[in-house]
Design a protein that fits this description.
Layout lengths: L7 E5 L5 E2 L15 E5 L2 H10 L25 H7 L8 E6 L5 H10 L6 E5 L4 H11 L6 E5 L3 H11 L3 E5 L16 H18 L3 E6 L11 H5 L2 E6 L6 E9 L8 E6 L2 E4 L3 H5 L10 E8 L2 E13 L7 E4 L3 H15 L6 E7 L11 H13 L7 E4 L1 E2 L5 E2 L4 H10 L4 E5 L14 E5 L2 H9 L1
Parallel strand pairs: 4-8, 4-9, 5-6, 5-7, 7-8, 15-16, 17-20, 20-21
Antiparallel strand pairs: 1-2, 1-3, 9-10, 10-11, 11-12, 13-14, 14-16, 18-19
Helix pairs in contact: 9-10
Bound molecules: thymidine-5'-diphosphate (TYD) and magnesium ion.
């Protein structure tokens, strides 16, 4: 009998409708650009195997043997922490981030320092010479790292058989394609198929597989959202590529907490771990410039101090400008409206520029108070005294509201030697003010904060 050709069909990612050919618009639900090619021939074979009787029986959870193989420790402590304590054998991890942020550097740098394992690095983006140049920049590493430039999934499977790696890296999932599908590399169908095949490999052989993936301009992982469901962990590498700080954030992790956070700095010789972010993000501590305030933020479970800079000046043209980096611009407009209405500062005819230090982006509502203080300080042209910091959310009536993890914030500020901290009144339940190691000023309204700082 002739070998059956691999068959594919088109499925709508919205409603799941099947169609034998591609269509711009789903014939069932009418959505545009949702049809994705998928292989369908393999499915009956698998269900036949299942029917042959290898049916699973329910087992008591306490009788299941725990994972015997220990985690593979990465050389970077920050990476281990974000992974939940090292790389789990047989896991599929997706590392996403914008182009040029340092994904390849992070992975290569870590793998080059692992001496005891065979590693296969599949690159579909760069040539071996380019990778070598990068490796030389980072410093000479292990002899057990093998690099292959390949974009065909079937060829990659061949290389895996030849090298028998104990860690596999695919850089990037959008550049590889399987011969069983007609669609181009990077299409939703290809990304899904390749990820599923690599997942099967990871689970069957117990080899951890690291996939590198691009994210789109909107910040989501390119390719299907389903990729996030397939993999065990999704780590996002973020930051502004014009600045040196990078944050590694777990979006999903089946083997650890997603509230961890890794901070790196991009240097000439690769990425450097930042174990003490607060010290680096407070550039002007000690100088008395107006418009600078220090906020105490928590990202994931990690508290750090970060500087907010504001510049308020009279608008030169009719419409005042509002320019923000690292903070939500709608939120800033809301805070400015609160200052205008509740505190009586006439900001409507002023240009306001706001900047968060280090090119980082903060979403913590507790940064509101620092933003407000920076704006007020610039507006009255009086510096916030050295050693002051703040944490609190600002409500629409100008009230200061409590924030989460206040003990951690206070101890981080105290540890860095700051002397005074503004917090919302009532936020201190269970916190011993005397033992805090920092003078705490409880404030109810924005006016109180203004009075506390500027007298
Ligand atoms: P890269 O890892 O190629 O990013 P990605 O894989 O996410 O696309 O790194 C991109 C940038 O990092 C590159 O523009 C230059 C910079 N870089 C350094 O500053 N120092 C270094 O030692 C290396 C290797 C890269
Ligand atoms: Mg790269």
């Amino acid at each position: 009998m002739a070998k059956k050709a691999a068959k594919s069909a088109w499925f709508c990612t919205d409603c799941g409708a099947e169609s034998p050919k591609w269509a711009g618009r789903c014939p069932a639900c009418g959505a545009w650009n949702t049809m994705v090619e998928e292989r369908v021939a393999a499915a009956p074979a698998r269900s036949a195997a299942a029917a042959r009787g290898k049916r699973q029986q329910p087992v008591a959870v306490n009788d299941i043997e725990a994972l015997s193989e220990p985690r593979i420790l990465m050389p970077s402590k920050e990476l281990n922490r974000v992974l939940g304590g090292g790389l789990v054998p047989g896991s599929l991890v997706l590392l996403g981030g914008e182009p040029g942020i340092g994904k390849s550097t992070l992975v290569l740098q870590n793998l080059l320092s692992i001496k005891s394992r065979t590693i296969l690095y599949v690159s579909g983006e760069e040539s071996a010479t380019q990778l070598k140049l990068r490796a030389d920049r980072i410093g000479r590493g292990s002899d057990n790292v093998f690099i292959v430039c390949e974009t065909s999934l079937e060829a990659i499977e061949g290389h895996i058989e030849a090298v028998q790696p104990s860690i596999l890296v695919v850089d990037s999932i959008q550049t590889i394609a399987s011969d069983t599908l007609d669609s181009a590399a990077g299409s939703v169908g290809q990304v899904r198929e390749c990820a599923a095949r690599l997942l099967r490999y990871a689970k069957e052989r117990g080899v951890p597989v690291l996939l590198i993936g691009h994210i789109t301009k909107e910040g989501s992982l390119a390719g299907p959202k389903v990729l996030e469901h397939i993999v065990d962990a999704v780590l996002q590498f973020e930051g502004d590529s014009r600045y040196m700080y990078r944050i590694l954030r777990p979006i999903k992790n089946r083997f650890g907490s997603t509230s961890e956070l890794g901070i790196y700095e991009m240097a000439r010789t690769g990425l450097r771990e930042v174990t003490n972010p607060s010290e680096m993000l407070m550039t002007h501590a000690g100088t008395d410039l107006s418009g600078v305030a220090t906020g105490v933020t928590v990202d994931g479970a990690r508290p750090f101090l970060i500087e907010v800079q504001a510049l308020v000046s009279t608008a030169a043209y009719g419409t005042p400008q509002r320019s923000v980096t690292g903070f939500d611009s709608k939120r800033m407009n809301m805070l400015l409206a609160v200052l205008e209405k509740r505190v009586g500062f006439k900001l409507a005819q002023k240009d306001v520029f706001l900047n968060i230090a280090g090119g980082l982006r903060v979403n913590d509502p507790a940064m509101d108070l620092a933003v407000v203080c920076a704006v007020l300080s610039s507006n009255v042209d009086m510096a916030v005294p050295a050693g002051w910091c703040m944490a609190g959310e600002v409500g629409l009536t100008g009230e200061i509201r409590a924030c989460t993890r206040i003990e951690q914030r206070i101890s981080e500020a105290a540890r860095l030697g700051l002397t005074d901290m503004l917090v919302a009144a009532g936020n201190l339940k269970g916190v011993d003010k005397e033992k805090a190691g920092i003078r705490i000023h409880e404030v109810v309204k924005v006016e109180d904060a203004f009075r506390a700082i500027f007298g």
